[in-house]
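Issue 218. Parser rejects a valid record. Input:
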Amino acid sequence: MKSAAPRPPSVDSVAAHADALALIERFGRTALLAALRAELDAMRAELARGAAPRDAAALLAACGQSLEKRFAPAPRRVFNLTGTVLHTNLGRAPLPREALEAMAAAAGACDLEFDLARGARGERDDHVLQLIIDLTGAESATVVNNNAAAVLLALNALAARREVPVSRGELIEIGGSFRLPEIMRRAGCKLVEVGTTNRTHLRDYAGAIHTGTGAVMKAHASNYVIAGFTAAVPEPELAALCRERAVPFINDLGAGALLDLSAWGLPREPTVRGALAAGADLVTFSADKLMGGPQAGIIAGRADLIARINKNPLKRALRVDKITLAALGAVLRLHLDPDSLGRRLPSLRLLTRGQDEIRALARRVLPAVAHALAQNAQVAVADCASEIGSGAQPGKLLPSAALVLSPLAARGRGKALERLHAALRALPVPVIGRIAEDSLWLDLRCLEDEAAFAAQWDQLDLPVHAS
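Output the parser choked on:
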């Protein structure tokens, strides 16, 4: 007679094991029991296939691994060595110390919508309103959760069920499938395309404005370039036409530089103050791109239009929380002192880092990386070029330096690169690079925690290559 397959232990017996006490203390009894039941279900399937049974210690060890993953903080910190400083998938701008301190201070009870002077209800935007006015020259401003929301809200408040002329050359699409025409439809307004892809004239706008026009919109082409036989209407001329026709002029700047970046040797980007000075009634822009702040969208401009926007029910749906406002206020205050901004704002500090400094950093960390990869890849220092990222200044590159990891495997180089990159992503602080030219490039422009980066390479789990 065939003997019956062994049966797994009971949940209670394993939970009573001495090794369970530390897991209960750390993760709680409810979580441990759920993980244990899952492991026992897996063990029953294993036993049915003829596998050897696992004892209580082995089951609890497996539970510990699954609970570690379940309770691990997320999102996780990573080393962004892609060469793109403002990387959308990696959180865009790193926040300054001042923002982190402000976020922690606001985490408990705070005066988010309470006026301490009057002892009455206040407005949350007031915490950053005067800062935005001072830095942009706007009459007023409001804050929402990103620039797409800023565009959506402004259009819905001012031009719902009305027409909005936009140049065909400015019908932008950015990462994450944000398309201006689709946002306009969601805002309830009708897009009217004017001009051609490469040439738009003032007469094109003039012919499109009538009593059914809600606003005229300009969108900054921040992530592409139209070159050659081109023409665009200067902003002061378009603003004058809109004033003459009593139609609001909205300028979507996207990346949203508050200061002229050329002062730090970077490519010049249109500023919010400049757009308002050129005649825009409203300017929409991001806080987490060239501003170097948290994810947020800002609408700045005429006080009467901002008042209309703030009365729109969508404003409440799109508003930011206290943590974001605290971080935004801290970053705005840093902009009040341009002389120290280059060293205090991480995004600007990384963008302005010199190639010689980055090259020296690469040489310092090379030994630790080369030692860890000695049996799998050659490691060398090479010059490269970084990008600003997040749709800012397409085609404008920043001289940088990288560690170039080239697999030793003679065959299957593509798979070897994928395994290598996967192993780097599995480090305690995942390392994210980019694969190019049959190698894995680690652009070190954004590496500031040199000690932590160098110290974790002895934990790399990578099998020796097969030649």
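Fixed in the parser; the record now loads. The chain has three domains: 11-71, 79-88+350-459, 97-344.
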